[in-house]
């Protein structure tokens, strides 16, 4: 059906474009034909009612039109833009340039699989009575894809060498009993945010314990240390007027994210380099608020920052210090408060962040500092305000762990820990296996190739029952892939000797005593199928059980 130019002599129809009329003629006819004298005369019809070529102007004033009369209170002419939009509506099914979301998701996954940085999680059930043992359920060739439930007849007994449960405190009988007692007394969850029914005496007890540990006025607990770092640095950078944040190049992603999202001016100084930090601080107005943020123990290199020197440089230029002790609390210092306590410089550390999820064997994070600072973060940090608080089970478990590691048992464990770490490093050196120059309990072994680091870990697990985790991009830069080993005080010297012997064999088979980098294999490290170089859709064989397989 089509409208002619003569048709639009009607004052009502003349309000619309021909394109609109042609698109919506049926609606107009069905609803208004009997109300409009002009439309009745002209009889705008489709093929059954041909349009007459004559002009049929409507007599009289527009106000006499029954249509305008009836709809006068509500009718308004649409703007030209709206009319044009209506006319240009298209059927989305015919749009050829639509965005293919599923294809995009697959492409992003393929990028990770092609450069061997795709992560395949090991399924490991730790043994609560026999640290550092666990049962491993990662058999990719198992036809049962729902075998996540424990089946003691179908698992592999392994030793864990990569856990952040640095002291084995998760299996301590007192910690486990504290958690059991808490769930019997309080139930499983907290019930809400700290502001809405989720604020318990246990929260205050833990915060007071943490403040005493770090010799600060106050402390605040978060659901994780990622949230603690992110929220605190974001809030500081956002609220402090004209704030500049100076960040160590080796800082954790949680710190980087908080700094970046705050919008504060950021400066990156070379990791653990006070000279470079001072060069950057000199160029910023002394009167402007500044924060220097760094970690004491770097989780992937094992470096320990020169805390006192960095603090002195920061304070010289009127900057606050924000110091992450995540990989140090429980492990260093007389009472386990970290590197700051070990070095006697806690008073120079303005803000300390730490975790309950590593040496303290639970989950959660925290900050400690002066009372007004902590109260400001409590009042403004979205990551603290708008989330369910930690449950009493976690709080009581953490309180118990902190007290254990503060006391004589903790001091004994720290001494044993350092002895085991030192022995492990000496064994690696004896066999000529390179290691990064770590001054901490973290032992990084450089590999330099993501495929090879994964292969070594899989061999150690499948052939010898040792669980070591490959560390690949983006956790470390490309070309700096490594193995990260963290022996605990519970690992025996016999365990270390056995591990070293097995590791040397795998290291030899990998050819790493002669070839350090750019080593590749023609087979997939998971399904052992030939590597299909050049195929975009299937990087390794056609075995759909392989976790590296992508169905396109």
Automatic annotation (TrEMBL):
One of its GO terms (molecular function) is 5-aminolevulinate synthase activity. The keyword Transferase applies. GO terms for biological process: erythrocyte development; hemoglobin biosynthetic process; protoporphyrinogen IX biosynthetic process. Its cofactor is pyridoxal 5'-phosphate. It catalyses: succinyl-CoA + glycine + H(+) = 5-aminolevulinate + CO2 + CoA. One of its GO terms (cellular component) is mitochondrion. InterPro entries: 4pyrrol_synth_NH2levulA_synth, Aminotransferase_I/II_large, AON_synthase_class-II, PyrdxlP-dep_Trfase, PyrdxlP-dep_Trfase_major, PyrdxlP-dep_Trfase_small. Keywords: Acyltransferase, Heme biosynthesis, Pyridoxal phosphate, Transferase. Residues 160-501 form the Aminotransferase class I/classII large domain. Coiled coil: none annotated. Pathway: Porphyrin-containing compound metabolism; protoporphyrin-IX biosynthesis; 5-aminolevulinate from glycine: step 1/1. It holds the Pfam family Aminotran_1_2. It comes from the Eukaryota. The keyword DNA damage does not apply. Its EC number is 2.3.1.37. Belongs to the class-II pyridoxal-phosphate-dependent aminotransferase family. NCBIfam families: 5aminolev_synth (TIGR01821). This is 5-aminolevulinate synthase. The lineage of its organism: Eukaryota, Metazoa, Ecdysozoa, Arthropoda, Chelicerata.
